[in-house]
Amino acid sequence: MAKTYVSATINGEQTEFLCETQQTLLDVLRDVVGLTGSKEGCASGDCGACSVILDGRLVCSCLVLGVEANGTTITTIEGIAQGDKLHPVQQKFLEHAALQCGFCTPGLIVASKALLDENPNPTETEARYWLAGNLCRCTGYDKVIRAVMDAAAEMRGETVG
Amino acid sequence: MVKVVLSSGSASQQFTGGETEFEVEATTFRRLVLELEQRYPGLGKQVEESMAIAIDGEIFQDAYAAELQAGSEIVLIPKIGGG
Amino acid sequence: MNYIDSSLKVVGSRPVRPDGVDKVTGRAVFAADTRTAGMLWGKILRSPHAHARIVSIDTSKAEALKGVFGVVTAADFPDIPSEEAFVGEGPVNFRDLALNVMARHKVLYEGHALAAVAASTQEIADQALALIDVKYEVLPHVIDVEEAMADGAPILHDDMITTGVNPPPTKASNIAKVVTFKKGDAEAAFAEVDVIVEGRYTTQPVHQAYIEPHACLATYSPDGQIQIHSSSQGHFMVRAYTAKLLGLNLSDIRVNPAEIGGGFGGKTLVYLEPVAVALSRKSGRTVKMQMTREEVFRGSGPTSGAAMDVKIGAKKDGTIVAAKQVLKYQAGAFAGSPIGPGCMCGFAMYDLPNVDVVGYDVVSNRPKVAAYRAPGAPITSFAVESAMDELALKLGMDPLTLREKNAAKNGTKTHYGPTHQNIGFTAVLDAVKAHPHWKAPLKEGQGRGLATGFWFNIGGESSAQVHVNEDGSVTAATGSPDIGGSRASIGMMVAEVLGVPADVVRTIVADTASIGFTHLTGGSRVTFATGMAATQAAEKVVEDLKRRAAQTWEIPVDAVEWKDGKAYPAGSNAGAFEPLDLAALALKSPRTGGPIAAEVSVNAQGAGAGFGAHICDVTVDKETGHVTIERYTAIQDVGKAIHPSYVEGQIQGGAAQGIGWALNEEYIYNDRGQMENPGFLDYRVPVASDVPMIEAVLVEVPNPRHPFGARGVGEVPIVPPMAAIANAIRSATGLRMPDLPMSPPKVRAAFDARG
Question: What ipTM was predicted for this assembly?
Answer without folding.
Answer: 0.97
